[in-house]
Amino acid sequence: MLELRGLTKVYRTGDKALTDVSLTVPKGQVVGLIGPSGAGKSTLIRCINRLVEPSSGRILLGEVDLARLPPRALRRERRRIGMIFQEYALVERLTVMENVLSGRLGYVGFWQSFMRRFPGSDIERAYRLLDRVGLIDQADKRADALSGGQRQRVGIARALSQEPELLLVDEPTASLDPKTSRQIMRLLIEVCGERGLPAIVNIHDVPLAQQFMQRIVGLRAGRVVFDGSPEELTEAELTTIYGEEDWTAMRKDGEDDREAEAETARRLAALSA
């Protein structure tokens, strides 16, 4: 379980990125984090694993307060947090398998990692994960030869190879087409459910968040202004988060995208019949 208590981030300029953010994410729950650009979504995720140093507040992962750990202890505890990035953060010249195994770097010695010599159990785990994300046949392919959706699947497998207790996901679908975006979101929801992983997903696509997230947290100017189920995210709540907009049109666009994909699938099925 993850618990944030009064998390605040103030930059040296005096600008507040986060103000008194408090929330609890129980085991197995996937939370969608939405809000306009500059609302503090990415800062919140990066404060949790202290890629950005919080100014105050507590970050409890189980019984451990990550906000108060010295550097050596923080490195050890970071192994418990899997991070999935918008731009994949893969090593392009390495194979898919090598990228997945890089998730084990926090568990092996320097020379083992330098020589890329991993225990047999790590290699077996990597193969199982590649099978789970649908890339077992791509294990020996270089990362730079993959599509965007395949790269994101490698990123998911790499994060899971850490055997984390928490997933932090930063805009996993921002560079993907609508169909692939839904496939990636479905995969994330499934693997979190299978492993009982709590997760926070920074996502800019509101209809996608409403379709897949179990809970949605809305940020505006660094403050939580909404915390509820997708069904509770009304047009009034969306206006509170983002400001005035034609939310009916936005929902219609999302429905049109899904219908267009369904029609394409029907035509392909007819051609192959």
What's a quick, concise take on this entry?
With 273 residues, this protein is of the alpha/beta class. The protein has helices at residues 41-48, 71-77, 96-101, 110-114, 120-132, 148-161, 178-195, 206-212, 235-242, 247-272, and strands spanning 2-10, 16-25, 30-34, 56-61, 64-65, 81-84, 166-170, 199-202, 215-220, 223-228.
Distance between the first and last residues' Cα = 48 Å
Helix proportion: 40-55%
Biggest sheet layout? 6 strands, mixed
Query: Main sheet: which strands, in order across?
Result: 6-7-8-3-9-10
Unreliable residue stretches: none
Order of secondary-structure elements: EEEHEEHEHHHHEHEHEEHH
Describe the model.
- The chain has 273 residues and is of the alpha/beta class.
- It has helices at 41-48, 71-77, 96-101, 110-114, 120-132, 148-161, 178-195, 206-212, 235-242, 247-272; strands at 2-10, 16-25, 30-34, 56-61, 64-65, 81-84, 166-170, 199-202, 215-220, 223-228.
- Helix 6 packs parallel to helix 7 (178-195).
- The longest helix is centred in the last third of the chain and has 26 residues, at 247-272.
- The protein is globular, with a radius of gyration of 20 Å.
- The mean pLDDT is 87.
Task: List the main descriptive attributes of the protein structure presented here.
273 residues, alpha/beta, Rossmann fold, 2 domains, six-stranded mixed sheet, four-stranded antiparallel sheet, 10 helices, 10 strands, globular, transport, ATP hydrolysis activity, hydrolase, ABC_transpr_PhnC
